Here is the input.
Amino acid sequence: MSADLAVQMEGVRSRRPLVHHITNYVTVNDCANICICAWGSPVMTDAEDDVRDMTPVANAVVLNMGTLNPRTVEAMVLAGKVAKKNGVPVVFDPVGAGATPYRNEVAARIISEVGPDVIKGNAGEISFLAGFQGLVRGVDSAGSSEDMATLVLELSKKFGCIVAATGTIDYVADGKDAYVLCNGHSMQGFVSGTGCMLSSVVGTYVGANGVVVDAVVAAISAFNIAAEKAAEGCDGPGSFKVALFDSLFKLRPEDLVSAKVSKA
Amino acid sequence: MSADLAVQMEGVRSRRPLVHHITNYVTVNDCANICICAWGSPVMTDAEDDVRDMTPVANAVVLNMGTLNPRTVEAMVLAGKVAKKNGVPVVFDPVGAGATPYRNEVAARIISEVGPDVIKGNAGEISFLAGFQGLVRGVDSAGSSEDMATLVLELSKKFGCIVAATGTIDYVADGKDAYVLCNGHSMQGFVSGTGCMLSSVVGTYVGANGVVVDAVVAAISAFNIAAEKAAEGCDGPGSFKVALFDSLFKLRPEDLVSAKVSKA
Amino acid sequence: MSADLAVQMEGVRSRRPLVHHITNYVTVNDCANICICAWGSPVMTDAEDDVRDMTPVANAVVLNMGTLNPRTVEAMVLAGKVAKKNGVPVVFDPVGAGATPYRNEVAARIISEVGPDVIKGNAGEISFLAGFQGLVRGVDSAGSSEDMATLVLELSKKFGCIVAATGTIDYVADGKDAYVLCNGHSMQGFVSGTGCMLSSVVGTYVGANGVVVDAVVAAISAFNIAAEKAAEGCDGPGSFKVALFDSLFKLRPEDLVSAKVSKA
Here is the structure.
């Protein structure tokens, strides 16, 4: 499969997609920079008056509910609707779904009113969406499930979109097949926002290549292989994060030969 | 005292407290990451609908008024009240108190309506709260006072909480005793948000260990010892900040033997 | 000219100006830190009640419209007006001007209602303001023009302020003369917010030295020479950004001998 993934990365590099983010104020800078390092072009804006004109010219929209307030929730719903109307792929990261009723309500609203093309969360969030009450503690936690491959596949069928559940092992499904991805490094768990960053990379890949499962698998694999390389010789979470940007920026399509991807 | 401090650090490592922050948008990412590096689990959310459900399950709440607006001020007051009602410790960082009437008003309101368990500011902010009009220029400045130990002790009695005033020398008092802490490095003054980060570390320590003066002293000592280590071989504020995350992450309880703490 | 520029840097170092920012939530932390590394003192606040009292005591105000919403737009207009009334220089960065009608409207409003002392944007934004419809794609892009020197000069006459258009080559004009600046490194294009950071450095320099073209030229030259040094031995955008802070912090007035500045 690594040849297919390399094609996805080449697509990003040749197209340099414009990725419109409405994301949280905690990790927004990291999302912008990782998007650039993935060879995308980030734009962050959440005023409704701006969204109406920015979203249609984007190649993908990333909606991340890490921090919410009434104004930005409306902006996310608007951006999602405008994107769908204009054929712009929508990636949704339901950060903290399962943690509070408000988050659950917003996640449900975005899923029903927008209909994202890709839903990417950690295992706890995706489990919650699937109706399994995940143990969500904070927003950096992950549940786990031996049945996660089945769960993402079922969820992708139910929602009619690509679903990805991330953790030590990542699972991706597109309504037909489920994939198991085994790259990454434990150091990712010690940096705030690695999940948010990955959503931005996913947005970059579907922005360049369209809503295909290979794009999502390639994005996750590229990010996680970059993390493996960044962990070599790093001295802790601070230097790991710096090296992660460098490492993704330097990753080449041929490096995706290291991708550990299998069908479930 | 270093044995007592080591116990505090061990408490954080074994409990990994969930620390709910309502903080400024300037240094929020650094607060999240330093909380992780202190072995806490950060969550940042400020929508009132979210606060109601997130705050009660947190182990500590950090309210930081670095950037304010009417919406987030209400969220801070609400989070503080919900925390107190649920026995969750509240750490308050009155950033910029003394600089403008609006900041003074918000600080006074949080102190009177919430009743924080720990108030941690720089010397200028704490001096202002004490009624000494500190020379507060910007939010990274510090006043100084030979009487600072007395001042924090008096203030801790008046407010019935732990008070910490940070600067080249740090002072902590709990209504009975005042402590003088002499760790740290001048490079901390060249990175925006080291004070905010320290408040997050204090929140992490009281979240794990309860509202005890040893927890606050241990948090400040750990952060400042980490800063001393980070300054070794750094090349300026950029590399110092990266090393600070690494250094705190790698700090072990036995490293607190370097703590320079004495009773005033 | 490098002797004149060195004088500007010495002015910043001796005066350590307080720079009030109302800027976007994407790169605000980088703006704060680069201001410190340029030897300024940053303060970020956007509540109208706070702006009224903070702006008059600042040495410069930086208004950056990277992210906008109705509340912060009003805060920017207010801060600009208060600054002008109090003789505080205003630097305006019209991020994304040309990209959406909302951004164009806000930029026009700030220019007409505030009357900034310095307008600094990338070539695409400045071209748009000049009535040439720049190809603005995202907010990190730049148009290009052989006539850019003429354009900034004309624009500086029209608006009665200093105008700077940045890119691979930077152009600065003050209504009388136009300057061409040729320092910098391609790596700057791979880090989100280098343009925002530069606006903060410009604010720091005019805050210390007043609204003179030498201050703006010195700020841009210092930042770009620091970037050249940072690029040496960096391993990608992550390590480049870290080194950029270190490098600007360590830059000395005599290093401005490397400035490549000529009259157009």
Q: What stands out?
A: The interface with chain B takes residues 24-27, 29-30, 66-70, 96, 99-103, 137-141, 190-193, 235-239, 241-242 of chain A (CB under 8 Å). The mean pLDDT of chain A is 94. The first helix of chain A runs from residue 2 to 15.
